[in-house]
Input
Amino acid sequence: MSETSPKLRAELAGIPTYKPGKPAAAGGPVAYKLSSNENPYPPLPGVMETVTAAVSTFNRYPDMACTGLMNELSDRFGVPLSHLATGTGSVGVAQQLIQATSGPGDEVIYAWRSFEAYPIITQISGARSVQVPLTAGDVHDLDAMADAITDRTRLVFVCNPNNPTGTVVRRAELERFLDRVPADVLVVLDEAYREFIRDPEVPDGVELYRSRPNVCVLRTFSKAYGLAGLRVGFAIAHEPVAAALRKTAVPFGVSQLAQEAAIASLRAEDELLGRVGSLVCERTRVVDGLRAQGWTVPETQANFVWLRLGEHTVAFAQACEQHGVVVRPFPGEGVRVTVGETEANDIFLKVAESFRKEL
Ligand SMILES: *Cc1c(COP(=O)(O)O)cnc(C)c1O
Output
């Protein structure tokens, strides 16, 4: 057999692999998965029925243009169809945005630590990642990010709220940042956790995009809407950017099941947002509980909390797992814990309390 293998692009060497949140251990006593920021509730009855009905047509290709979903989104957000694009989760859309803007010699700027998909999709494109450290308070340093822009910069991600810290950037600072970004650099506002925001000073990206042709808003059905397994997300952006997204889409990427489920979820929004409200109450309870135990917890506007545990990160994650909750460790940095079922949050709080006493 020859030693020679097919030639692969050099950019793929050393690419970080995406680490999915660990699943809850099967067969254990009780096991809760608090490692992927999923919605802990099962699908709403109406959504379930719609998807079940759509199952009978999966010998057919889906509607490639996602017509029904696009119309629904257009009405709901008050944006023209030409400003919309759907994709296989918002990660899929983010990858298309990079493909459409960046290649070898170009630069993509984002905060670090932030969403772990950014370095991966940037490196695949051949562009260079420019990672701008979060502030000491674990917030985007927008001034430093604007300072990092060069004539090679093609795209800047602003993850609001930031994954994994839950922290936000507010209206005045975000507008000041956008005013500093050259008109030919695309700013992607990744708003995967938008529905969990309760701070009125956090702007809605859809309002910011309207007067700014270089702003693209990313949203997903994976988190608050509870459709993580069906892979559907979307972007709102002005014509050239949205058109580029439609060009770079994998044909038939969004399944008919996903399209129908997304439409049904939008129509069941009152109930869905009621569940989100309960999770937000749980978030307050978890954060208050941790602070009462003596932990420093950054203000979170997402469905997770961040504990900067440094060298204790892995030990903490192991302690959680031993007690039946799986969290997401970033070794050497901290632990991200999804706000889940009340019982799961209780277990997490108990583990945090005893761990704190031993520190
Ligand atoms: C979960 C998440 C997404 C969405 O992922 P999907 O591909 O839509 O499932 C996007 N951005 C961030 C920051 C996330 O945490």
The chain has a mean pLDDT of 95. The radius of gyration is 21 Å.
